[in-house]
Amino acid sequence: MNAQALFAMMVQQGDVVTDRFRDAVRHHPDQTFIRYGEEGRDLSFAAFEAEVATLAAALQEMGLEPDDRVSVFTRNSWIATLAMFAVWEAGAVYAPVNFNYAGRLLAYQLNDTAPRVLITDADLAPAVAAVLDEVRLTNIVVHRPLPSDHDHDPAKAALPPALLARPGLHDLAELMRTPRRHRPVTRGAADIANIIYTSGTTGPAKGVVQPFRWINQYTFNSRAFLTPEDTIYCDLPLYHVGGAMFLVAKACWTGCAVSLWDKFSPTRFWDRVRAHRASNAVLLDVMVPWLMSADPRADDRDNTMMRVHMQPLPARHHEVAQRFGIPFSTAGFGQTESGNGFVALIDQFGETEAKRPEFRVGHDRATVLEIARRRGVMVVDGAEPLAKGFMGRPSPLLEAAVLDADDNVLGPDEAGQLAFRPRFPHLLLKSYFNKPDATIKTFSNLWFHTGDAVRRTEDDVYYFIDRMGGFFRVRGENVSSYQVEDLLNTHPDIRATAALPVPAEEGEEEDCAVFIQLVEGCSMTEAELRSFAASVMPRYMTPRHVRFVEALPVTPTNKIEKYKLKQSLLAELAAARAAAETGR
Q: Looking at residue 502, which CATH number applies to its domain?
């Protein structure tokens, strides 16, 4: 199937996720849509639609207009899902906030987004109250868990006085108490669905403005392998596209259920899968070694998991699939700006059955392979070794290339920056919110520049090499060296900071290391630095390695030579590992 035919198929399936949701409500209203595992709460498409309509009406009664932004700042995945659909139904823009944020990071994003409404939790209310003097918020909706709710905490039930004194404060439970209907708003492929923030490398984080067709493109290949019988497992946060779009929103196109959880649990993952008969999931980096670290059991394959997307693809992917009876894995490249640029299907069992009949869900192997063939999805044998960084072949909907510093297209096996051009309208981000210069720069020479270094083989297979900019991946989060440095440099005793990635002690991603140059005459211990870091940044952003230096190495133009710092730290860590092994 050529690109034009695939695009026509994608558009025919529906560009707007809320249209697909309403279709699901009409065609199978009683089928289960959301299974909120934290509270054992199952909602059909019709029941969920009624709750969405009530919240959407409440938002419109607050004065919410089409294209207004709504920031959603919650740890509760049910509240995030309800809010996301209600925002879309009200014609507004979903703008989630990382629930780890506080202080400077939180204030920046709220100021940048300028939401008409903020939806948040009682336990996050103190973080909101702390920045009230720095941000303008017209309406604040607070989820205050009841004693029967799983996230109820008596110590955090009372809202801060500064928040209680604000006009425009609303209790979510009160808003939801009286069912009502919203004014339907028609949305199109080019209309803005979301503003999702991604880490800035040389400046503050940037809001990625995504049209509705972006969601369609991002989920198009993955949902082809789903049936209404499937259940998508989601324990990823809904402030990232992976959880919100790739897992939850995707279910609207196929009418299947979503098994929804607030966070990943390595000890309860398979029990959850079995309880909800979940068949599709995403495993990010350290999730894989955590699951594999459990003692093997005779019933490891007694589960309904049929397909898992692993990102980055671990070297042990085949071992994981064989142990837990997962017939297929997928690999690829997903990005907040470009969506699903690459995909590959990994056949982990071949002709051998992965599990007993009672645990099989959805399509059989022959159907899966035929779908891949029709879509032009690359299929590989899981038993065959794959080089590190394997991403598969480009989506036919996008033109991909490897570019040099002057945007010349490089040949096979030459390393350069990955770039995309959409073959059809509205497939990529529209812009970076409020950042026209950054938008123009990333689209220079009519290519979208991803900021990632890759290589391409002669047969058009792509492999990820490294991040090109000043950000790296830590525990599934993008960490910006700029943000780490900016936050640490607010300490009066710190003159300069250099943050950089080093290979993680566990998993395929990275750990954060910082080199600190103090103000002359000042002193600081590592414990003091860590205590300060914990007070100004999320836990995932705090450095694993801390080194104090007399001076940071710089070029003649005063740019910090981070490669020298990285080389010295890697040598030090290698020597320490060697000494530890010798001493055993």
A: 3.30.300.30
Tokens representing 457 are 């083989």
Phi, psi of 378, deg, nearest 5: -65, 135
Closest CA to 220 of 95, 81, 397: 397
Of the residues 187, 221, 251, the one at which a domain ends: 187
DSSP-assigned beta bridge partners for residue 197:
207
Indicate the DSSP class of residue 334: E
The upper half-sphere exposure of residue 5, i.e. CA atoms within 13 Å in the direction of its Cβ, equals 5
Name the residue among 263, 173, 230 with its Cα closest to residue 33: 230
Residue 389: CB atoms within 10 A of its CB come to 18
pLDDT on residue 201: 56
pLDDT digits (tens, 9 = 90+) for 4-57: 999 999 999 999 999 999 999 999 999 999 999 999 999 999 999 999 999 999
Residue 434 resides in a domain: no
CA dist., res. 301 & res. 493, Å (int): 55
Of 100, 75, 73, 103, the C-alpha closest to 87 is: 73
Range of the domain at 106: 47-187
pLDDT band of 320, cuts 50, 70, 90: very high
- pLDDT at residue number 168: 95
In a domain, 519, yes or no: yes
Is this prediction's pTM over 0.90? no
Mean pLDDT of 100-112: 94
Q: Which regions of 79-230 does DSSP assign to beta strands (E)?
A: 93-96, 117-121, 139-143, 169-171, 192-198, 206-211
Structure letter (DSSP) for residue 436: H
CB 564 within 8 Å of CB 554: no
∠ CA 18-20-21, rounded to 5°: 60
List, in order, residues 6 or more apart from 29 with CB less than 8 Å away: 44, 45, 46, 49
Assess if residue 263 is contained within a domain.
Answer: no
Chain-wide mean pLDDT for the chain?
A: 93
**Final residue of a domain: which of 153, 169, 187?**
187
- Is residue 88 situated within a structural domain? yes
Is residue 283 within 8 A of residue 331, CB to CB? The reply is no
| Angular region, 460: left φ>0, alpha ψ -120 to 50, beta rest | left
What does DSSP say about strands 192-198 and 41-44: parallel, antiparallel, or unpaired?
unpaired
pLDDT one-digit tens code per residue, 356-386: 999 999 999 999 999 999 999 999 999 999 9
The pLDDT tens digits of the residues spanning 149-203 come to: 999 999 888 999 999 999 999 999 999 999 999 999 999 999 999 999 987 655 6
Query: Per residue in 446-487, pLDDT tens?
Result: 999 998 889 999 999 999 887 776 667 787 787 878 788 889
Please tell me the total count of domains within the chain.
2
CATH of the domain at 115: 3.40.50.980
Residue 584 has pLDDT above 70, yes or no: no
- Nearest CA-CA partner of 77 in 238, 278, 192: 238
Contacts for 332 with CB less than 8 Å, ≥ 6 apart: 309, 311, 340, 341, 342, 343, 344, 391, 392
